[in-house]
Amino acid sequence: MNPKKVIFALLAITCLSFISVIFINNGASFNKYAPKLLRFEGDGYGIHKPIWGDKMFTKEEALYIHRHYYWNRYYGNNFKEQTVAEVFIDHLINAGEGRDKRNIKAFEKIIGAEENGVISLDDVELANSFMKAEDIVNPYVDYRLRYYRTRKDAKKNKGWFKRAKSFYIEKKPELQEAEEENVIEDYIVLPKAK
User: Fold this and answer.
1) What is the DSSP string of 9-77?
2) Cys-Cys crosslink for 115: which of 36, 80, 105, 167, Cβ 3.0 to 4.6 Å?
3) Is 52 exposed, middle or buried (0-12, 13-18, 19+ CB in 10 A)?
4) Considering only CA atoms, which of 7, 32, 120, 148 is closest in space to residue 83?
5) How many CA atoms lie within 13 A of 119 on its CB side?
């Protein structure tokens, strides 16, 4: 074995590993989301047969569909925060875009984007500008819960609610206490004085 080739190969592997840690792991990733998705989807891997055809899909086929037609389509890898990408794209996988793309428009409203029902890279950048992921995630979870309550099958599909709630981000106790100081009733939160 040529020692120069071995050293070069080790150096190349080290550099590639370093680059992948720096650039790839800093944003959202379908690979990080996939186990959570599969846990909620169960037997059919979440593939809606009227849309995708009446056949049994393998796990690999299902993951390809979820990655290609949902995660990539809605720029999942471009989100800075994994939790933001997951809460949004998971709802589109679970419930679709909604009539008049209302599930996308709700996300756009939360991030302050134009509510046109089309997620763009500018929308993703706007979401990435938020300092705290919970400022997007928790309101979108609240939206998802309201959306599910309007579905005729809501009572028999309790898993929808459990799935949505799994994305909540708990506030740090000190932030929660500060918010509670501004609460008059259970449903009224006053803005903080400057």
Assistant:
1) HHHHHHHHHHHIIIIITTS--HHHHHHHHHHHHTTTTT--HHHH-SSPPPHHHHHHHHIIIIITTTTGG
2) 105
3) middle
4) 32
5) 26
Residue with tokens 């569909």: 65
Question: For the chain (length 194 residues), average pLDDT per consecutive 10?
Answer: 65 54 68 88 62 68 87 97 95 89 95 95 97 94 91 78 88 55 49 52
The DSSP symbol for 23 reads I
91, part of any domain: yes
Q: Is 98 helix (H, G, I), strand (E, B) or coil?
A: coil
CATH number for 181:
1.20.141.10
The torsion angles phi and psi of 24, rounded to 5 degrees, stand at -85, -40
- Count of all residues that appear for the chain in the document: 194
Strand 188-189 to 183-185 pairing: antiparallel
The model carries a pTM of: 0.73
pLDDT value at position 159? 78
Report the distance separating Cα 52 and Cα 67, nearest Å: 14
Q: How many domains does the chain have?
A: 1
92: in domain? yes
Please tell me the predicted confidence (pLDDT) of residue 22: 44
Question: Which residues form the domain of 173?
Answer: 28-189
CB 85 within 8 A of CB 96: no
Task: Specify whether the CB–CB gap between 98 and 104 falls below 8 A.
Answer: yes
The answer to whether position 60 is within a domain reads: yes
